[in-house]
What we know:
Blueprint: H1 2-5, H2 17-20, H3 24-39, H4 56-62
Amino acid sequence: MSLISRFISEQGKILSRRVNRLTLKQQRLITIAIKQARILSLLPFLNNEKQFERTESTARTTGLRTRNK
């Protein structure tokens, strides 16, 4: 699992080939391994550690929009 987790971002997304420096064949194998690990509940589909933390971006999107005149 430590090997597979190197190819996943902090948000739980699979990193791209350029970031990983893998060949196309290697990237496909890693992607299949990650998806199988998620199905077997060895890896989470999403990383929800900061789910309930309120940040500036969520504050902006949830607030009411006002016009400046």
